[in-house]
Amino acid sequence: MESRHISRVIRADAQRVYVFARDPENLVSWAAGLAQSDVEVRDGELVAQSPMGEVTVRFVPRNDLGVLDHDVTLPTGETVSNPLRVVAHPDGAEVVFTVRRLDATDEAFDADCAAVADDLDRLRRILEA
Predict the structure, then answer these.
(1) How many domains does the chain have?
(2) Which pLDDT score, from 0 to 100, does residue 103 have?
(3) Domain encompassing residue 76
(4) With 90 as the cut, is the pLDDT of residue 71 above it?
(5) What is the pLDDT of residue 82?
(6) Which helix H or strand E contains 37, and what residues bound it?
């Protein structure tokens, strides 16, 4: 299975980037591929309206390592695991999202990667403003 690592350097403290990116209230402002409207907490889980329909999102517990891995349960019931890291960088922080091809066509995989890149660009613009 092919994976592609999409990353952006953000000129902001890594802990600040981690805290902002992890906050469900902020997802709609930067993660358009995941949340197109405010995220609600339902039965202890995050529920978002995504381009694919309603999805459930479960982040790993808060940690000091910058790990924001999360599982997204799609409307089909399939769960996709998404590795996401915020690491210290000489210019601030680097955010790295791993996109896995799974069974996507070349075109769909490229589109997923482009969407993640757009999301990370939005995150960078917000945190560098």
Answers:
(1) 1
(2) 85
(3) 3-128
(4) yes
(5) 94
(6) none
